Protein 1
Amino acid sequence: MVLPWTGCAVIGLSLDELPTDPIAVTWWEPEPARRRAELQERQRQQAPPAAGQQRVGVARVEAIGQLLGARGDASGKERFIGRLCLVDPRTGRVTPVSAAPRGALPLAWSDDHQRLLFLSGHRGVIHVYEYDRAEDEVRAITGGPNPHPFADYGPGGQITYLEVVNRDGGQFERIWLTDEAGASPRVVFEDRQAEGMRLAPDGSSLLYVRRLPTPPGRQRRTELVRLDLATGTEQPMGRGREPVFSPIGDWIVYSAPSRAGWRLRRMRPDGSARSPVAGGIRDEKMPAVSPDGRFVAYVGKVGDAPTDLEVLFVRRQDGSGDRVLVDAGAVYAPVW
């Protein structure tokens, strides 16, 4: 099934400029997307203030579990589960990946854009899977009783993945890294409250998101941390979330807080040359850099109402040009 789109908000960027490699997203059709947004807003208004801190792994797994459909939400029966889809950047067409279970969440493309890592909770536990485009087949990457809420590709076929481990009545996070054949995983580090991570294209470092102390009832605070895999040393990189490396590793693009909301920013891997990737009037989340490094897809809203849908935008990495790529339905977690 191929689904149409309707475009708007075109500012100085032609679709003909974009590379043809598909963008993977989780996508909701328009009516379920609208009902889901209304339900989320009702739940937000009814939710009591947070009473205290919650362990990162616990919070992350619960949020992803609800998104994937691994757990019910507060409505009991209303569970609006999205679909893993591929977006054609030149046309905006949305094509569901029939081999993937409903609710699948994309994570990363292989270098050749033929394999896609994604999350699924269809068997009751959140695990990492790999979709093969050529064979239209899916295989499991992780297994066992512990959830695995994030993963990424590294150079030459390496895979890194995050595991939330139950031990002695508590939980901690452990990050694994495989060899170039995707086998022989080893623990890179553990118990550092990693909420998500990205492996540098040259395999030298790991960039992860660490939660900072946050007062009860306030929006969670996170920072980016760069871990040198050769020395084990860490370098705090400042406030932010949802980082992604450019294809050759010369830039890190991420979403950072500002007085006007979340905005796309970029910096060099050593933390230098920090700059905005332009800036609009909306929250800018979940950046995904194109395979040629020239463009950034991201999630934002066209309007500012709480129930407005989050759609897919694209702009040049230098900040010029901006347009909606898909505004039919709602999107989440683009991967390019």
Protein 2
Amino acid sequence: MLSLPALTRPFTALGPDDAHPSAPRTIARDVLLGFALWFMLLLFLVSTDAPNEPRVYGCTLLAVAVLFHAVACRWLIPSSWGKRRPFGSYWLKAFLVLVASVVPVALVLLIITSDSEVAIGFNVFQVFFNLLVTAPLSWLLYRRRWQRQSALTGLQQELGHSEASLDLLRSQINPHFLFNALNTLYGTALQEHGERTAHGIQLLGDMMRFMLHENHQAHIALTREIDYLRNYVELQTLRTATSPDISISTSLADAPAAAQIAPMLLIPFVENAFKHGISLQHKSWIKVTLHVEQGTLYFDVYNSLHARPAPAGPAAEASGIGLSNVRQRLQLLYPERHELIIRRSLDEYFVHLTLQL
């Protein structure tokens, strides 16, 4: 049974650029489908040797219902949209249209049957049938199409906001890392002028090339992301190579060639480990592992922690950019496809990421 609240609930009008359910192409498709059903009904009645009266009345009733549906979706329902009681207004207009259809329908039946009493009786029946059956069904079909189109429009808007958010996050990540990398090269250059500096510059060049060309793609090969991690760790190792109390170990397994990932998704965790886990005055360690099993990436970062003075000003605002951004990106790009576990104690920090690629 059709509930009255479901039929009479008002709507908000669609904008002019929306694919409205009353568009001519949509109505034409409905009419073609209706007359295809009309033709199938006619073939069925003929093939079963049905009497002439069921053939005439059944086919005429279906034809009137199809035409009424087209008129309702094209004009009657849209014109009632802004009323206080849209369904009541539409139903009244439907009644007037059906009453107006009595004369042409009667003329058609008189031509076919030459029986005025039958024409009058059929007209009374088709008016009530279309008013009580076809009109509510047309309204519900129109409403369902509107809801579907409204949901699609909402998804498109949400996608636009998500893409804008991702662009903003990327613009925040890249400068933050470049400043750290340049500081590392500067420290190395002060220590010596030789192979280490040249190698560091080469690593930085490879990483900058990655950010310029691949960081702006939606997805890249996981092998490229792993190469970027290796270059970053090796670049940072140059800075700590002369400190025996600093231990850095990595186990980054080769990934399947077909595996894809969003770029710059893993580096914030490693960058955070070097930022907070390395101290030239205390024993420090960093351990990074990564492997892929059956389409799932397992990524762990484990590092020591050292008490530091609380940063102030811009440094305080920038301190949490990396991890905050990566959380947002995971929610946007891998909803319900990732698990992020972060544990922290007074002297240790542990990150575990499981990601379904």
Protein 3
Amino acid sequence: MEMCESLAHKSHRIRLFGSYGSQDVKDIYNFYGVDDCFELTRCERPSLGRVGNLGYAYRVAKKVRNAPTPDLLYSRYIYPLALLRNECASLIYEAHQPPMHRFGRATEKWVFQSEAFDSVVVISNALREKYKEVFPFLSDDDIIVAHDAAGVPEQSDETVVGIPIRDDRLQVGYVGSLYEGKGMEVIIPLAERIPDADFHVVGGDEERVRKWENQTDATNLHFHGFVPHGELGDYYADLDVLLAPYQRTVRPSSGSGDLSQWMSPLKLFEYMSVGKAIVSSDLPVLREVLDHEKNALLVQPDSIGEWVRAIETLQSDEKRETLGQNARTDYESQYTWNARVERILDGANV
């Protein structure tokens, strides 16, 4: 949604084809906190596993064919591109992980070898190297590295209930999903070890929130559940420290695979945009963005002792302010959606 907003702000006419989510949302643009400046076409995704995914790709391709012929097809989903490889002048595929199985690899190769193929956009340098290994016929000019990005969450005059819990204590927060490897494995013992700070978890559906709540009796750990993206700004405003406790294995929403080698987490850039101190897991792919003691504190993913010491260091107002300001400066220079769009369009031959 935010990529489309930025493309539209550059005077391109954009139509986004997407599936229906689980939320009953009346104003989808307001839900994501973006301007109503591009068209949105929704397609049903059958709940039939991979067969359903292919059915969804077919429905998307059919709707694209029934719309005005685009100059460029840009997709994060390879199968509609495969079905539409001869429908327009240029194709760009954005990859967030390498192909997970033989059929997916063959499909990507078929798209990359089409006359319309322009570029594959990858979200990290590590993923670029993997794509060069899997598809050796791709040249450096065929691959564009564009780390993810974020918009600055808007703040309102509304008061968030439950943050802060105690005005005189450090307010530590995590914003994001609660899938395996995203960091609840760290946050729970961290809250138990530091009772003098309040910890807030913003995100997760009811089932996953209950799962993690049942694993601790810590009274300083507070679960706020799912919050629409457009309302997150008020939560960020009341937090002092933000956690990115990704583990050595990070599962996607499907539950299979591992994103830890390639990921470029949206939340990381959102954290940077609000200018708050960040404590993050020290993973090679995250070092492409984060610099220890400059714009974040980096600690070993599974060392609770290191996480505790990092939080204790950030009791210092001056330390938090320095890290937060540096993160915000890096965000403004490199990781806005507008900067990302410019990087992709400049790198592509379109």
Protein 4
Amino acid sequence: MKKSSKELLGARIKELRKAKKLSQEQLSEKVGIDPKHLSRIEVGRGFPSLDTLEKLATALAVELKDFFEFAHSTKNKKELRESLCSLANEADEEKLRLAVKILRALVR
């Protein structure tokens, strides 16, 4: 089942919060919202206002656009392969060589 925009946004906020090693309580305190409201946002049952999104971005030291970069979490294996091929087609030879080295290191 496809996730709603609210669920995707909430999951992305949670992902960014955890990357900063912050609890919901810590982040909600920095932003000035109730921890229950942040919890509802993270599970997709609530939607933050633009003002709250801006405060979250500041508290997490990210840009607003970073909240909407969740396509990576919704792609299946086929789509991921297609994305890799598309990126490879755009890269010059030097970047391709570097990409192959990095991918080889990750796979091994």
